[in-house]
Design goal:
With 109 residues, this protein is mostly helical. 67% of the residues lie in helices and 0% in strands.
């Protein structure tokens, strides 16, 4: 995942990496770093090549992989990394990675 260089974007990225389940919206993160929503949106794309939502999805999935590899249930992992339901987590995983977590971990991807 691209590492941001702008201080505001890096602060948001660091918060999300520290707590992938952080439910705060882009607006809330923008307020926390003293930026407007539009400014933070622009900076995220400029700095990482990804939108805030896409970057957060990648951060959440990256945090999920070691938990899944430990054998934790999809339900537990989904909630730990910020998804409301296991099906939302599975949909995001498939959309981003192209396969299910089980197949990915088994090398079937």
């Amino acid at each position: 995942m691209p590492t941001p260089t702008d201080d505001r974007v890096r602060a948001v990225a660091d918060a999300l990496l520290a707590d992938p389940g952080d439910p705060r919206s882009l607006d809330a993160h923008a307020r926390a770093v003293g930026a407007g929503r539009r400014t933070l949106t622009r900076l995220f794309v400029q700095d990482t090549g990804m939108t805030f939502d896409r970057w957060r999805t990648h951060a959440r999935l990256r945090a999920a992989l070691p938990l899944l590899a430990e054998g934790q249930s999809v339900s537990r992992v989904a909630h730990a990394v910020g998804y409301a339901t296991p099906s939302a987590f599975l949909a995001a995983f498939r959309r981003t990675v192209g396969t299910s977590p089980g197949r990915y971990l088994n090398g079937d991807a």
